[in-house]
Structure formats: structure tokens, C-alpha cells
Amino acid sequence: MDLPWYITGLCEGEACFMVSFSLRKKLKLGIEVRPSFSLSQHKRNLELVKLVRSYFGVGAIRFSRRDRNYKYEVRSVSDLMAAVVPHFLKYPLISHKHEDFERFAEVSRLVYENKHRSRAGLERIIELASQMNPAGKRKYHKGELLRLLGKVKE
Q1: Which of 4, 10, 36, 55 has the most CB atoms in a 10 Å sphere around its CB?
Q2: Helices in 23-62 by DSSP H: which ranges?
Q3: Phi then psi dihedrals of residue 33, to 5 deg
């Protein structure tokens, strides 16, 4: 088995690249950015989840009682930049998910380089995130985040 390509294939259907936002009054711009990568599997596939965790060498596995799934997740931006992003650059996705990954990789890079701490950088991140996974649920939509950002004096 060619493990790196197997991981990419598995992620085509079972993984998610996500950028979430939280409002944080203590932050200069008031908006926290959190990119994350996750993969979920039914509890019977725990060994598969462990294999993915072992392959990347970063992140954590947790069990969700609600849906009886194990979830592998990488939330550390430095871990995303060191392990997850390079993997998918070398072993690219081929479905529509590739476009989401490209945006996710740029967001992760911008956060890694602390560009999210400037208004222009955060606006770019909000724009990129709004183009990802259009059918997904969002706590805060692009217009709302940009409105909140517009009220902040830099």
C-alpha cells in the first residue's frame, strides 16, 4: 500500500479543512481565527484513525458519544504548516476539495505569519474562508465578520 496516497484518498471523502472564527474582545481586532483539519470515522474504524494520526505525527483523537465517531483533529497552526499542508501539496487532492485545501493552506500560512493581526490580513482570511465549503454551517458569515472588523479602530 502506498500510504501517503491512501491518506489523501481517504481524506477526499472523510476529512474536512475548516476555518472558524470566534469573537474575542481581548484581541486587538476582536476576531480570533482558527484553522483546523479533521477526519471522522465510526468507532469500529479506530485503528484507521490511529493510522492517520501516526502518519501525520501531530494532532489528537477524541471520541464523540453523540455520533459514536472518533475524530482526529489538528488545530495547532505550526502543526498544520509542518505536517498537514506539506502532505497535501506533495500528494494533492483531485476533487473539489482541492480548492478548499488551497484556500485553507493560504489561511494557515497567513495565520502562521501573524498576518491575521492586521485588518488587511484578517479581511483576506475572512474572504478565503467564506469561499470554502459553501454548504457548511457557519456561526459567523462573511458580511457579519467584515462589519465587526469595520467597527474596530486600528
Answers
A1: 36
A2: 46-56
A3: -110, 130
Q: Per-residue confidence at 104, pLDDT binned at 50, 70, 90?
A: very high
Model confidence pTM above 0.70: yes
Query: What does the domain layout of the chain look like in residue ranges?
Result: 3-150
Domain 3-150 falls in which CATH fold? Endonuclease I-creI (3.10.28)
Highest mean pLDDT pick, 27-36, 131-140, 143-152: 27-36
29-50 core/surface letters (b: 16 or more CB in 10 A; e: else): bbbebebbbbbbbeeeeeebbe
**Distance of alpha carbon 97 from alpha carbon 13, whole angstroms:** 9
DSSP notation for 72-89: EEE--HHHIIIIIHHHHH
CB 43 within 8 A of CB 69: yes
Q: What is the pLDDT of residues 44-99, one digit of tens each?
A: 999 999 999 999 999 999 999 888 899 999 999 999 999 999 999 999 999 999 99
List C-alpha distances in Å: 90 to 5, 68, 87, 126.
Answer: 10, 32, 5, 26
